[in-house]
Automatic annotation (TrEMBL):
Acetylation listed as a keyword: no
Phylogenetic placement of the source organism: Bacteria, Bacillati, Bacillota, Bacilli, Bacillales
Alphabetical keyword list: Membrane, Transmembrane, Transmembrane helix
GO biological process, one term: lipid biosynthetic process
Protein name: Acyl-CoA desaturase
GO CC, any one term: membrane
Residues in Fatty acid desaturase domain copies: 56-298
Length: 372
């Protein structure tokens, strides 16, 4: 894809075809949230107060993990203002929904709404974008990570999905904290530490064994579910000079019942076109996108998207390709030669990161050679 358009450009062409109610908040989404909240409280009480067999506790932990993730999806929707519009009510409901994932509403809106959505897949500005080869050359940690053989690294990368949302949230707190006004910093810290204090307090109240099933294991499960979506949202797409959702975003497909339970979180391209629209109407937006720009739209079944992530590296080469520096394998990205049905690569000169001094030179030579 050589021509880019902003999300506003697409939205202006789709909006006239959508009903007016699609641009109104949908408070009825809170019924689903109430069901998940009730289920969460009930399962935690059951694990904490009843002497259940570990098998039953394990099953309840799975239900809790699914509920934690679903509440996070609803919290994402609430904090975009698509459920209620009053700021104080939006933040209270968003804080409750994100409580199991221990992410505060002020931090989330700064990190996700204000920064990620405005600068999607911009290497320098998007806090969720993966690095380019040039950034890899400047980071001692990344260079060490990419010395690990690709199959081993892919295994640990997928295993880390079970903790990645939590770790990234902590990183975002540190990264954005200085950007908040002094009067808001105490609120941001309170919104971050208050959920953690309740969960750690629960640990001392019920003991580690029950706490493991009531919170820790569900948190790991929720992390994995949430990050399975987030990892497929953009990480097979190229870095882009223009925030073009049809170039930098991927919609995954899941069974309809999962879409219902996950508040249509799979419709990610649609979300980046209309972030202030309830996800209830994203199937309608999808119909218009596929009718108007079928050659630009990226859509994959969730399983195939995750398999493609497993088989490709996460370092960008010249913005629109992915590179495995250790072996010199270069893969396409979506819209730039990547075929999820048949993932192949072309060979470049391998880049053995043997020392800090030689690496930028090797990269410079490789990029120069490719440009000729």
């Amino acid at each position: 894809m050589k021509e880019f358009h902003t999300f506003g450009w697409y939205a202006a062409r789709i909006s006239p075809h959508l009903p007016k109610k699609a641009f109104q908040p949908v408070p009825s989404r809170l019924f689903g949230g109430f069901a998940y909240l009730s289920l969460t409280i009930g399962c935690i009480l059951a694990v904490s107060l009843l002497h259940l067999h570990p098998v039953w506790n394990l099953l309840l932990a799975v239900v809790l993990g699914f509920s934690f993730a679903a509440l996070g999806f609803l919290g994402h929707e609430i904090l975009h203002g698509t459920v209620v519009r009053k700021p104080w009510l939006r933040d209270i409901l968003g804080a409750i929904a994100f409580w199991p994932l221990c992410t505060g509403p002020k931090l989330w809106r700064k990190w996700h709404n204000v920064t990620h959505h405005v600068h999607t897949q911009d290497e320098e500005m998007d806090p969720d974008a993966w690095p380019s080869l040039e950034r890899l050359a400047k980071s001692r940690l990344l260079r060490w990570v990419y010395k690990i053989p690709f199959p081993i690294r892919a295994f640990f990368a997928f295993s880390s999905l079970s903790v990645m949302f939590t770790l990234h949230s902590i990183k975002m707190l540190i990264y954005f904290f200085k950007d908040f006004q002094l009067k808001n910093r105490s609120v941001v810290l309170l919104q971050f530490f208050l959920p953690w204090s309740t969960w750690i307090g629960l640990l001392f109240f019920i003991g580690f064994e029950r706490w493991f099933f009531a919170f820790l294991l569900p948190l790991l499960i929720a992390n994995f579910i949430v990050m399975s979506y987030i990892s497929t949202n953009h990480h097979l797409n190229p870095l882009v000079p223009v925030n073009d959702p049809l170039a930098n975003s991927l919609t995954v497909t899941v069974p309809k019942w999962i879409d219902v339970l996950h508040f249509n979180f799979s419709y990610h391209t649609e979300h980046h076109l209309f972030p202030a629209m309830s996800s209830k109407y994203y199937p309608l937006v999808k119909e218009h996108i596929k009718r108007m720009w079928p050659d630009r739209y990226h859509e994959l079944p969730m399983g195939k998207a995750l398999a493609a992530l497993w088989k490709t590296p996460r370092v960008y080469y010249q913005q629109n390709e992915l590179i495995e520096p250790r072996q010199g394998h270069v893969y396409g990205s979506l819209g730039n030669g990547l075929d999820p049905e048949n993932i192949t690569y072309r060979n470049m000169e391998a880049m053995p990161f043997s020392s800090l001094e030689e690496k930028p030179i090797i990269i410079k030579k490789a990029v120069g050679k490719e440009n000729k």
